[in-house]
């Protein structure tokens, strides 16, 4: 069992406030200094935008129990709070942009899988990255305030280009709208209440409004979205800690361990302990 390492944002000494741009070699160097195992589960409180160079080897990267392969020229966006693990970084080369939540005014919906832009879209994404990297390195030509403002705009352009580089455009999610507020409330309170009606009442919406907004943004109902978040945290705790099933149930707000077991089996098809054993490659005794 490997515990999750919580990683706080800590940029380089010369980095602008709120964001940083590093290559894979620098990431390995920083991890050694901070004694972070990049191959182990880690939960950063900031965004990672991982880009594998076009002439490099693919990179395996696991995000919340899903293993991805970032191809040469590909990108993967890891959000704050997600548990992720790097593959063999020494076998690949690339660039990572990291930034704190709120550094850009609005984060477009990140793709859940690696993105490999092609044709004109690839050229536009590559140009946006080059412009960002160039401006990032040009620290002395403007005031710090102006430099940060410039980097915010350039990062936003890169994110928008990536959000539209796939085969289908991302859903339009109004800033500060019902789904965004529901998403934030779920992240804050999913261990306290499992009822969509409670979130609706607290946010001043009807349950129907939250369901419509969540369906539009994710293709899932509000209840399914909430249940998915509970299941994800349950899996994180089962795999990355040695807490008992009853302790996990209490942490997630279930009044009885049996209710948690039924809930978990309904969504995963296995008991909590059977999931743990399979995820760790063990036999259930």
From TrEMBL:
One Pfam family of this chain: HTH_18
MF-aspect GO terms: DNA-binding transcription factor activity; sequence-specific DNA binding
Superkingdom of the organism of origin: Bacteria
Record-linked PROSITE patterns: HTH_ARAC_FAMILY_2
Domain HTH araC/xylS-type: 180-278
Gene3D superfamilies in alphabetical order: Homeodomain-like
UniProt entry tagged with the keyword 4Fe-4S: no
Keyword terms: DNA-binding, Transcription, Transcription regulation
UniProt protein name: AraC-type DNA-binding protein
